[in-house]
Structures are given as structure tokens and as C-alpha cells.
Design brief:
Layout (H helix, E strand, L loop, with lengths): L2 H29 L1 H5 L1 E14 L5 E10 L6 E4 L9 E2 L4 E7 L2 E7 L5 H23 L5 H24 L2 H11 L1 E13 L8 E9 L5 E5 L15 E7 L2 E7 H10 L2 H26 L2
Antiparallel strand pairs: 1-2, 1-5, 2-3, 4-9, 5-6, 7-8, 7-10, 8-9, 10-11
Helix pairs in contact: 1-3, 3-4, 4-7, 5-6
């Protein structure tokens, strides 16, 4: 490789470093502006609409009503940014966050917190820094080895915390242990596009009455199929938490996942973590002996 090629690679390396140090925090600040600078008020779900689409699928759109704290003006609309709630019932209290300059553009329901965004940024930056160091690692010493292993440990720790905070297995366990069963019906399908041919899948949209008497309409994200669900009006058992009716799933899905998750899944995760650490050490050792 000539000198010009070496300078190009070195320039790409520095560009990647600048992108990590500047780009990742900038993107994080932009994504968390509602959590940092937004006004938080309590709103109410007026209704949950199931809008039909082609292929037997549909879209769930909640209509939220809240009052702007500054102008005392009532705002009615659907969330235009953030994660849109896929379940609710008329009269459901819901948290709304909006920027004072544009109350019509708001987020509703639980959103990604600043802590989660910071952990995700830390994970990306540590993994990126390890990759950059390995590309330039020609003469490793004890300090460099410790830095790479330490960064790998930080990345694994951040990934573990993020996984625990958003663990589907924990929600499934809570449904199995504390959930109650009521009968509802499938009223439609929510399609998730996978980005390729025949890569999309469907979630059933369920309507049921909770233990407290709320008429809940929402998508069961724990159940999926490669085809849309038939809307035949047949009763189906739905398991939900009495204190949080928005946490629900088909009873058959909860039972099936409870039987498959457990020590085997944890063992698989542990083996994966150990394998990743071993690969990093082997790559570092091979680059060091060049």
C-alpha cells in the first residue's frame, strides 16, 4: 500500500473517531429533546381507532386530549413523534410531553428515557472505540489490552442493563404469575414491514374487557404470524395484568413462551457473552503479532 493509500485510511480512521465523539452525543441530544426540554402534562385517551389497510392489516391510532399548561388551550390529536401507544381505552389517563413552541406536536405514553438513551450511546461509543483501536493496534501493551477489555466490559454491562429494562421474558413471566384471563375477540391485524419480500409479519389486534371494566383495544406484540389474523368474532382467552391492562397477550402465547424461556435462554446468553470476549481477545492477539 502506497503512502497516499495509508493517508486515506488514516483520514477515515480519524473521521470515524470524530463521528463517534461528536455524532453519537449530538444524535442522542436530538432524540431526547422532549424528555429534556418538553413540558409534561396528564392527558386522556378519547378513543383508539383501528384504521383498515390493504391485505387485512390495519393501523392503531390513539386520539389524545390534553390542555396546554401555558395557554390553557385544549389540544386534541394523535401523537406525531416518538413511540405511538398501540393499546388503550377511552378515558385512559396518559402522560403527554410536548415542546412549548409547538403543543400540536407531542409524544404520548412511555418514551425512551434520557438514561436509556445515554446507555445506548455508551454502548455504541464503546463498541466503536474497540473496533477503531483494533484496526490501528500494531504493538499492544498491557495498557492497550486493559483498555480494550475494559471497554468491552462496559459495553456488555450497558447491553445487559438495557436488556433487563426491556426484557420481554420478564413481562411474560409477570403475565403468567399475576395475570388474569378474560375473553375477547380479534378485531384486526397490525402489520410490521420487515423491509424485504415476504419479510413482514402480523400481530393480532384484540378487544377485551379488563378486570376493572375498561374496554381495551390494542395489538398483542408478543404474538405474531406470517399471515393476517381472521376476524371471525370467535372468543379468545386474553391474559392481562389487573393493575396494568395494557400489558396483555393471548393466553396460549404466554403459556408457550413460559415453557420455552428459562435456564436454557440464560445459558445461551452467557455462552454468547463469553464467545464475544474470546473473539475480541483472539483478534487483539493476532493483530499484535503482525
Amino acid at each position: 500500500m502506497g503512502r497516499d493509500g495509508h493517508e486515506v485510511l488514516l483520514g477515515c480512521w480519524w473521521a470515524g473517531l470524530v463521528l463517534l465523539v461528536v455524532g453519537v452525543p449530538a444524535i442522542t441530544l436530538g432524540l431526547t429533546r422532549f424528555a429534556r426540554r418538553g413540558t409534561e402534562v396528564q392527558g386522556t385517551v378519547s378513543e383508539v381507532l383501528l384504521l383498515p389497510r390493504r391485505g387485512g392489516a390495519g393501523a392503531l391510532v390513539p386520539v389524545v386530549r390534553f390542555t396546554d399548561a401555558a395557554s390553557e388551550r385544549e389540544v386534541i390529536g394523535s401523537p406525531s413523534c416518538g413511540r405511538v401507544p398501540l393499546a388503550g381505552w377511552p378515558g385512559q389517563p396518559i402522560t403527554v410531553r410536548y415542546l412549548p413552541s409547538a403543543p400540536e406536536r407531542f409524544q404520548a405514553g412511555p418514551q425512551t428515557s434520557v438514561f436509556d438513551a445515554a446507555l445506548s450511546s455508551l454502548l455504541v461509543m464503546t463498541l466503536g472505540s474497540v473496533a477503531l483501536v483494533l484496526t490501528r493496534w500494531t504493538d499492544p501493551d498491557a495498557i492497550a489490552t486493559s483498555a480494550v477489555l475494559g471497554a468491552s466490559g462496559v459495553a456488555l454491562g450497558a447491553a445487559t442493563v438495557l436488556t433487563r429494562r426491556a426484557s420481554r421474558s420478564e413481562r411474560c413471566t409477570a403475565l403468567r404469575d399475576k395475570g388474569v384471563v378474560s375473553y375477547g375477540r380479534i378485531v384486526g391485524s397490525l402489520v410490521v414491514d420487515g423491509g424485504g419480500d415476504n419479510a413482514h409479519h402480523y400481530h393480532p389486534v384484540l378487544a377485551f374487557t379488563s378486570a376493572a371494566g375498561e374496554e381495551v383495544l390494542g395489538a398483542d406484540l408478543q404474538t405474531m404470524s406470517s399471515q393476517s389474523y381472521p376476524v371471525d368474532g370467535a372468543p379468545v382467552p386474553v391474559r392481562h395484568l389487573p393493575e396494568n391492562p395494557l400489558l396483555f397477550a393471548l393466553d396460549a402465547t404466554v403459556r408457550r413462551r413460559s415453557a420455552t424461556t428459562g435456564p436454557a435462554a440464560r445459558m445461551f446468553g452467557l455462552v454468547t457473552v463469553l464467545a464475544c470476549c474470546g473473539v475480541l481477545i483472539m483478534v487483539g492477539a493476532n493483530l499484535g503479532h503482525r
